[in-house]
Amino acid sequence: MILQAVLALLEKEVSFKKRITNIHSTNGDQNEPWFMRMNPNGTVPVLKDGDKIVCESDDIIDYIDRHYHSGFTLVPDKFSDAGKEVARLRDVFNNVQYEIITFGVIRNPELSVTGPKIPVSPAAMKKRIEMMLTSQTAYIKSMSERHPDLRDSYRAKLEAKTSRIQKTTDVDQIREAMKKCKVVFDDVEQLLGNLKKKYGIPDVWLVGPRFTAADVTFTILLHRLELLGLESRYFPQDKRPHIHDYYQRLLERKSLQEVLKEEKRIMVIMMSTMLKRKLPYVAAVVAIGVAIGAAFFTMKH
Ligand SMILES: N[C@@H](CCC(=O)N[C@@H](CS)C(=O)NCC(=O)O)C(=O)O
């Protein structure tokens, strides 16, 4: 998830340059040879720091935490109790099937409580998924033929992407992903309650009084569920008061406020680009681009 990396960069108060691309267009940066040479998985986000390239959100967060000592320590020593708990929780949150839930709920809005706040119609989402399975895959295939040195990476990407996207069209899999996500919320609710008792303070984070990488990952999950109009199912004040209160505290954090502002800025930029090109499904491209987004970061020294 791109926003995790952005949030971590903001929490660490490091400066960076960003390059934003629309991963849902046929030839988004992530499918281009220069990008595949940086990240053979062809996924975002990617961080470039001098000659060093880091792919995968978690690795990016670990890298900036290790190399930049401003802000909070997000990843405690992996042998400490806190470090082990951060790793455990990141694993739990990374196993939530974001893509299936996001695409699935937009396409089947009856699965949402208040309706997705992303202005994409189910029909536009259906077309978008079809486009991904047709023109995007055709583009990746053509690139694999034109760039023999990258053929294996393109082929692996094609396989992974097709199977991921196909899963988003199966309502049973969507419901299953949502059910599993609920179990995560039951566990976190209990965890926060226990931590409040243990530390005797009301404003605990997931591993204690300090904000860590586990909170970064959970923040973005909460934000995504809110965008999908699922907050009253997953963290309503009456049933999951600890998570509800945790999210209110998150919303007061400067880093998350910046991320939300950035999300809006990207929406405006993408909207005007799409309008200029007179592309169809403007709302779908813009909104999904924002929600799922895409970015490549370069550190400023
Ligand atoms: N585990 C990876 C997942 C990366 C990933 O799947 N990124 C998606 C966007 S959330 C992507 O780049 N999709 C574009 C594509 O597959 O063409 C990470 O956390 O960095």
TrEMBL record:
One of its GO terms (cellular component) is mitochondrial outer membrane. One of its GO terms (biological process) is mitochondrial fusion. Gene3D superfamilies: 1.20.1050.10, Glutaredoxin. Keywords: Membrane, Transmembrane, Transmembrane helix. InterPro entries: Glutathione-S-Trfase_C-like (IPR010987), Glutathione-S-Trfase_C_sf (IPR036282), Glutathione_S-Trfase_N (IPR004045), GST_C (IPR004046), Thioredoxin-like_sf (IPR036249). Residues 137-270 form the GST C-terminal domain. Coiled coil: none annotated. PROSITE patterns: GST_CTER, GST_NTER. Residues 1-72 form the GST N-terminal domain. The chain crosses the membrane at residues 279-299. Pfam families: GST_C (PF00043), GST_N_2 (PF13409). Belongs to the GST superfamily. This is Ganglioside-induced differentiation-associated protein 1. It comes from Pinctada imbricata (Atlantic pearl-oyster).
